[in-house]
Specification:
Layout lengths: L1 H20 L2 H11 L1 H13 L2 H8 L2 H11 L6 H21 L1
Helix pairs in contact: 1-2, 1-5, 4-6, 5-6
């Protein structure tokens, strides 16, 4: 699931770039067709554990997205974004410890 989170974080930032250079409708179709492997991973993960655990781990991709935005795209206000991401990551750990 960590691998899938990593893939989603990477493709989300690249997806924004692709949409600005093409048509959102065209990219939406192509993007969804290319991500069928991650959908299979999603369904497999759901079958193996509790849904809340899997989704919380999947949401850690947000942290990767914020870091990519800062490093690759030189986005501003990273402290605010990291604060929000840290709150969500804290939720992941709380679910892991007490769930």
């Amino acid at each position: 699931m960590l691998c899938v989170s990593f893939i989603y974080a990477f493709t989300a930032t690249i997806g924004k770039l692709a949409i600005t250079h093409s048509n959102p409708y065209f990219f939406g179709v192509i993007y969804n067709m290319s991500l069928t492997a991650s959908i299979f991973s999603h369904m497999l993960a759901i079958s193996m554990t509790h849904v809340a655990y899997m989704i919380s781990l999947k949401r850690t991709s947000l942290l990767f997205g914020v870091i990519y935005g800062a490093v690759l795209f030189k986005e501003e206000k990273i402290a605010e974004r990291l604060t929000g991401a840290a709150i969500m990551i804290t939720g992941v750990f709380l679910i892991g410890w007490f769930g």
